[in-house]
Amino acid sequence: MDSPVKDRDSGKELRRKPTYELQTVDLSYMLHPPTATSTSWLPWRSISSCTTATSRSILRGVSFKARIGEILAIAGPSGAGKSTLLEILAGKELPGRLSGEVLVNGRPMDGARYRRISGYVTQDDDALYPLLTVEETLLYSARLRLPNDGNRAGRVKALLAELGLEHVAESRVGGGNVRGISGGEKRRVSIGVDLVHNPAVLILDEPTSGLDSGSALQVMSMLKFMAGNQGKTIVVSIHQPGVRILELVSHVLLLGDGSVVHHGSMEELQVKLIKSGHCIPPHVNVLEFAMDVIQSLKIVVQAIKPIEAKEEREGGRKALETVPEEELPIAAPEDGHGRLEPATFRYANSAVNEVGILSERFCKNVLRTKQLFTARTVQSTVAGLALGTIFLNGGGWREKIGFFAFTLTFLLSSTTEGLPIFLEERKILMRETSRGAYRVASYALANALVFLPFLLMVGVLYSTPVYWLVGLRRDILGFLYFLLVVWMVLLMANSFVVCFSAAVPNFIMGNSMVSGFMGCFFLFSGYFIAQNNIPKYWLFMHYMSLFKYPFEAFLINEYGSDRFRCLEKEQGICAMDGSQLLAQQGIRLSEKWSNLGVMAVFIFGYRLISYFLLCYRCSGCRKVILIR
């Protein structure tokens, strides 16, 4: 299994990577209906896990082998259990009851180590950063998944050649409104993201779905080359295979209603059809014909006897005795009593390096996202100039209070435009963390750090014109405090949107919830109704309002330093000065800095909540099963 080979360029002897054979023994999976205590009511839980009325058997006694250097194609009609079987082979945690065995080289599969030698590409793995180039996409994946040994760039160059993507290496991936590469090329990029760490096992869910016949053939030819020339074990699911694609497949696993109908070559399937009394029309795809008549075929489940399964496991262990223990990242260690101990997983980079790499990638995406960068900067500058000319020289204290209220409305509501971007990033985060590319904490910290300078720039562009045109407190300390409050308002709103983007299932619900909460916060801010007049049972909303603390900070900054300045006269007598206005609003001068502290707590708190929500979301993708 582990023989030395010579490098083509240097002639030096290199150690060939271990190879792995997958096997399932009497694998069954039952999906149960949700219980009253389940979490299926949560909006971010999968629809499929909460709409089942009765227990349903998805897989029934599935046994097969996926051999080294071959492509095993899993076929069957819709609902046959293809995707579920692939998820199990990839080590994903599923909500139902799983029984049977999944063996890797004859040993029980342990997912934490198995992730290091396997790659899993789902149907929706085309969720890529559209503004990164093909080479940048693969390079960032390499930097996150490979140790820093100086060979990451070389690995990416070689991978571009293997995938046939050298001619589009400098082209942007594209997607949505961004023009980019073709669908077939994008699918190969998605596959390349999971090939960058050179996995020995590759599992793909319908890699040809949505592609034309030429692109589909190109993708399958690439997989055939990797299986035969690099000794990879490749398992794919195919929905509507063409004749030329089937010629590249080594064996077929045909599923019908969760059971094995056929496991073997295409020739053996043709013989089975003929023996079952079927006459295959000329020029008809044998596999598609078998899927059409699958109900009339006799379901053959190749059950493996327990003693035979034990012999295969023992044989696999003996074959692996020649391989160093550190090269067996698939089976959990035993504690001496036959019990499996939990396996640990080591990331390719330290947490600090992960934050640096992710921050760099975030910066590139923000700078290239015109809707978020250019539009936001122009919007802030124009809004600052426009509001400054509308409230020119401020007017009376009532006009300034209205200006402060409108400023907060503008700043807090304008951040919802980042919601669809965060939702798209969430898909990529869940995919990458499920592969063990980096920690969720590194992503959360990098996301927060990148927006610090960006939102500071937005705050400067808005505050500089509007502060002096409106004629607020005319000194540099007052301006710097005003800018600090504006910056923290932007950070607070950004953290609030990030928190909801981690919780909601889609943009429509997220936008509705964010807008609704912002309206409630404005209502209870103290602008429309004073704190003393708010009913006690609604008082908690006043203290939770994102408007309350910056609104009070603006008033303190404007009227606190010169609180005895007369603001309103009646018959030549001062009817209200700055101290009376603050007292009327229930504001104390000592709250000037404590309000900023509360805003900092909101920023940190919403970020922390979003981190836990992302951890919860990613745990379902990243958790791996151990089947005995």
From TrEMBL:
Name of the protein in its database record: ABC transporter domain-containing protein
GO molecular function terms listed in the Swiss-Prot or TrEMBL record: ABC-type transporter activity; ATP binding; ATP hydrolysis activity
Protein localization: Membrane
PROSITE patterns: ABC_TRANSPORTER_1, ABC_TRANSPORTER_2
Pfam families: ABC2_membrane, ABC_tran
Bilayer-spanning residue ranges: 401-423, 444-470, 476-500, 512-530, 596-616
InterPro entries registered for this protein in UniProt: AAA+_ATPase, ABC2_TM, ABC_transporter-like_ATP-bd, ABC_transporter-like_CS, ABCG_transporters, P-loop_NTPase
Superkingdom of origin organism: Eukaryota
Gene3D superfamilies: P-loop containing nucleotide triphosphate hydrolases
Domain ABC transporter: 22-282
Annotated keywords: ATP-binding, Membrane, Nucleotide-binding, Transmembrane, Transmembrane helix, Transport
Bilayer topology annotation: Multi-pass membrane protein
GO CC terms of this entry: membrane
First-listed, main subcellular location of the protein, grouped into a coarse class: membrane
